[in-house]
Amino acid sequence: MTHWDLFQPEMPVEELAEGADQPSEEEPPTQHTAKRESPFLGMISRCFESHLNVYIESQDKNLGELIDRFVQDYKSQGAPTAVVEGGGVVLPSCADLFIFYKKSMVQCSQLSTGLPLLELTAVFKKYLKEYSARLLTANLPKATSGGGFGGLLKETEVKLSTDEVARSCCILSTAEYCLDTTQQLQEKLQERVEAQFRDQIDMNAEIDMFHSIISSSIQLLVQHLETACEPSLTAMVKIHWQGVETVGDQSPYVTQIGRHVIETVPVIRDNLASARKYFTNFCLKFVNSFIPRFINQLYRCKPVSPVGAEQLLLDTHSLKTMLLELPSAGASVSRKAPPSYIKIVTKGLSKAELILKVVMAPHDPGNAFVANYLRLLEDIEQSDFQRVLELKGLKRSEQNQLMDEFRRQTVSKDSAGATADAKPRGPATSRIRKLERLIKKQF
Q1: CA-to-CA distance for 417 and 413, rounded, in angstroms?
Q2: pTM to 2 decimals?
Q3: Pair 237, 151: CB distance under 8 Å
Q4: Distances, alpha carbon 323 to alpha carbons 156, 257, 277, in Å
Q5: pLDDT digits (tens, 9 = 90+) for 324-356
Q6: Cβ atoms < 10 Å from Cβ of 386
Q7: Would you give the distance in Å from CA 44 to the centre of its chain?
Q8: Pick from 79, 84, 240, 349: CA 20 to 30 A from residue 126's CA?
Q9: Which residues lie across from 260 on neighbouring strands?
């Protein structure tokens, strides 16, 4: 049973006993099936409404025991293994929990749709939090500090085994199931409860809780791939780029990054086969983290000779190709990446390519070099231009001269822009007015 049909309307117990020839809840009454509502309907159940706290307390106890059993089952059996074809498995306990919820909701609403149903909702919310904490959050692999793409900042280092990657994906898929089914549960409770209590049926906090678990799971997977790629980016900086004399194939550090992608991405993709949007989210988060880190490492490769810059340019192009193909890495059938993903990769690594083209260009004459930088990168931040000069390995005196030229051209550019903005827009306004008069004449 999937969450899509878990909370479909079901017949009351009395109708099931009477047989299949009776109309279901979903069927509109016809002239043959319509029944006059009895004035005595609900009178007996209302007599017991004040005593239904016994039923609510019983459900609370049963759910507590059910969660304990789920925890013990997980400890003895672990997370289920994804089938290669289907993937996207969830913890079986999540379906059992919501089946229990459905039965309790139906039983309670047959006795009362007033305050007892609202109190049962509070019990449901309590054990959604229990399930989330004890079955999902508690079983996500833990990160260790010190590593990642944080540079000097203290980040987390995540090294997951294949089983831990699969477990993280299972918890993500389970959280998605719980999120969708909780939304349906909230809707069904709001439909059944009396109008005066309807606004108090609110499970948005629990829905947000499952959103948070999904985000944590994705971040964990992203950090896992980041941690795997970090040694390759460190090796990139250690190369003596000023001494590179010839341009060859892609550098070993690029090959290593590609190997980590091939080892990691297919496992995540297969285990999120039924949650494709979250696999796409994983890909987006990874490149949004990796590309700025790569550019930061690029600046640390100083000094770089023109030939070294050419080799780095080749490496950057290889990385761009690899990242564009990352969503389909290791797949038998290649699928085109989403446009948003392609845009991020292309824009981010195109900036790295332009930086290297500036480094390859001669810095004399200075005015032409600065103009070329501003044309290619459209970056007027002095600190970024300073980093490019350091990457070229220029002397301090040469850097100072170019910085002066940079300030002169950026000030001149700003002044020209301000003047253009301040100019009267008479001709354009005049054309608009002529067009307005022409339209009026036609009508």
Answers
A1: 6
A2: 0.80
A3: no
A4: 23, 10, 18
A5: 999 998 888 778 889 999 999 999 999 999 999
A6: 14
A7: 51
A8: 79
A9: none
